[in-house]
Amino acid sequence: MPQSEFRELNGLRHHVLRWEGPSDAPLLVLLHGYLDLSWSFQPFAEELRKMMPVQIVALDLRGHGSTEWVGHGGYYHFPDYVADVHALLQTLPGPVHLLGHSMGGSVGALISASFPSLVKTLALVEGLGPAGDPGNPTDRMTMWITQVEERRRSTPKPMASRAVAEARLRQSNPRMPATLAALLAEKGTTAVDHGFVWSFDPLHRTRSPLPFVLEQFNEFLRRISCPSLLVLGSDSDFRHTIEHDERAKEIRGARTIEIAQAGHMIHQDQPARLAHEIARFLQA
Predict the structure, then answer these.
(1) Which residues lie across from 97 on neighbouring strands?
(2) Which top CATH class is 3-283?
(3) Residue 98 in contact with residue 53, Cβ under 8 Å?
(4) What angle do CA 212, 175, 202 make, to 5 degrees?
(5) Secondary structure of the chain: what % helix, strand, coil (to 5)?
(6) Is residue 100 exposed (0-12), middle (13-18) or buried (19+ Cβ within 10 Å)?
(7) Residue 189 in 3-state DSSP?
(8) Cβ neighbours of 125 (radius 10 Å)
């Protein structure tokens, strides 16, 4: 099992998992997706450690897992995640190998473009940004403020037991092994009166007032200079939702591979196959 520790990064107490390895082994940093947490990478990390000497660090992004919430008056914007990861990388011997899943992939792309000297290679697992949806900016602002006010007035309804949390996790991803569901239900919930609630900040369930602007994101992709691997799940709709192939062309020299019998949560669905591909990528 990994070592669990806490570090203050960019003013917040962040939870970090570390899988130790030889000091001269590659250092891989893992960034999870939306409403996920670092423990989600446990099966993948253990499979990768069987295949090659490696040091692994996984971060709970702000407001996720066991990392501190932003608190009263704060919110979660993508530049905040990037600043947090930058603070983490500053504490590690670099440059590092970086792997991001989904939202974590978007963060990884942004930091790889902005601070190329810190990133040796980049693996984006279903992580080339969300679907473009600018919408009406006035409507978005109104909706955001309304949702934030509602969330701050409400209290999440507890789940009766962690078994309920396990069932919900497996309902969300039927491919998830029971052992991983049990681990995530334990590590990703907090005990309260009359049951358990998810550990992530409920503010994450509100829609950001800042639209995703594809051309702006593409400018970051064009500035990624390290070797890059793009990983897709064969049974995921992600590729079609975001027009993956068009975005992939913006990263110079990026290679795309597909993992069979995997949906969006590739690291949960096929951890050994993903580890095999990442080992090949790092060793190359």
Answers:
(1) 28, 121
(2) alpha beta
(3) no
(4) 45
(5) 40, 20, 35
(6) buried
(7) strand
(8) 31
Distance, CA of 177 to CA of 89 (rounded, Å): 31
Amino acid occupying residue 38: S
> Which of 150, 153, 147 minimizes the C-alpha distance to 208?
147
Q: Enter the tokens of residue 204.
A: 């994450």
Tokens 């990263």, residue located: 251
Sign of CA dihedral 50, 52, 57, 58: negative
The more confident residue out of 104 and 240 is: 104
Q: What is the rounded CA–CA span in Å between residue 171 and residue 160?
A: 17
CA dist list (Å): 273 to 2, 180, 261, 277, 279: 21, 16, 10, 6, 10
Tell me the average pLDDT across 89-102: 96
Structure tokens at 99: 């792997």
Tokens read off for 180? 């991983």
Phi then psi dihedrals of residue 248, to 5 deg: -60, -30
Residues 254 and 228 sit within 8 Å (Cβ to Cβ)? yes
The DSSP call for residue 121 is E
Q: What is the pTM of this model?
A: 0.96
Question: Residue 30 corresponds to which tokens in the numbers above?
Answer: 């893992």
Q: What is the pLDDT of residues 166-199, one digit of tens each?
A: 999 999 999 999 999 999 999 999 999 999 999 9
